[in-house]
Amino acid sequence: MKKRCSLLTTFILLLIYSPTIAQDFNENNDRWTKVWTNFTPNKMNYPEAEEALPNIITDHTYLRNDIVYSISGDVYVTNGASLTIQEGTVIRCDHKNPANLIITKGSKLIAVGSKAYPIVFTSSKAPKSRNSGDWGGITIAGSGKVNTVSGNGIIEGDFNPKYSVYGGNQIDEETTILKFVRIEFSGNTAKRTAGTNGLSLYGIGTSTIIENIMVSYSGQDSYNIHGGKNNLQNLISLKAQKDDYHFAEGFKGTIKNIIAIRHPYINSPQGSFAIEVDGYNPELGYIKPDAITDVTITNATLVNLSDKSNYQHTTAAISASNSAISYIHNSKISGFSDVIQFDKSYTSLATMQKAFMMDNSFFNIHGKGVKSSNKAINGTLDILKYNRFTENFVAVNNLFSDPKNTVTPKFQLKQSLNNYMVMQ
Hints:
By secondary structure, this protein is mainly beta. The protein has one domain (about 1-420): Pectate Lyase C-like (3 Solenoid), CATH 2.160.20. It has helices at about 1-15, 20-25, 350-355, 395-400, and strands at about 50, 55, 60-65, 70, 75, 80-85, 90-95, 100-105, 110, 120-125, 135-140, 155, 165, 175-185, 200-205, 210-215, 225-230, 230-240, 245-250, 250-260, 275-280, 295-305, 320, 325-330, 330-335, 340, 355-360, 360-365, 370, 390, 400, 410-415, 420. The strands form 4 sheets. It has an 18-stranded mixed beta sheet that branches. The chain has an 11-stranded parallel beta sheet with strand order 2-5-8-11-15-17-19-21-23-26-29, with no helix packed on it. It has a two-stranded antiparallel sheet with strand order 12-13. The chain is globular and about 60 Å long. It starts with a helix and ends with a strand.
């Protein structure tokens, strides 16, 4: 016992007196968010569409940035074709016949924008009239590994079955290349039993490149990732109605530099989380237990813009289900009820500790910290040790430097990290 106390004391002293740890965390670099992002997309006056894409694309197609394109209904890229989009291109997406862009298995979307000239998928509505879920979203089906019994699946959204299969054995597939892309007002649910998300990725391969993506005002998830293996970075989710980041069906990867900005009044009746990790799909089964979803997330900023007048509407920041594994490092979580909630698949404290770890991070919540469907499990707060936290809940404006800035929100802590408590 004396040895354990000594080790814990040493660790706390390192946290308090080590300038490297505190400095690296508190100066969480947000320069990657500047120039290409837009935190007020409803004010943007995009030009009207000039050319419509066909609903079936079977040949290699190139979209130029001197033309504004429109998509209406379901647009499928098939037959191994590539849809390549030039930097700075704007695609207006129909809200009357909600648009969806579906990249079928074996085909490819190459959308490489730049910091100065991002590619934008947005609503066909006029400024100040756009809403979450105006159109569907972008769905990409790959041939990578998926943790189902068959090794395959059918993409959600009731699409044409001919074009809906994903999964396979091409682990290193270059499923898509996406850089500097904004997806605005997606996530339509009006005409489908299962709504589509901002960006849905199914069975992506390790050669896939996804970085500098912003999904704003999705009526469903901002990012929904099923199976595959990849490392993604520089992702933003702004005020999604459902989850900001949803990982499922055995996805494995490292996610670096992500932001989720939520509002306590923007939620789904089914539950909304900044991060949802789902180990496998119970309806499809799984290949083997060690192929379940396993995600490492570094430099995450998960913020619900809540204060003491509305924080009661918030949920946990992270949801873990079906034995999923996740590791959160060097991150900030604020404005939620709890850090994480576990479903009944986590049957003991030992299974929780094996499945979830968070370190060198900071949290500001109004609940107890950890929620479990198994009420009999004790000591769950041990999961959150080695992190700093506020002794009492602090409203978003009092905690961060400029969290509601409409150009680039700033989430640097107003006080030094050393002023906050250490979980013991």
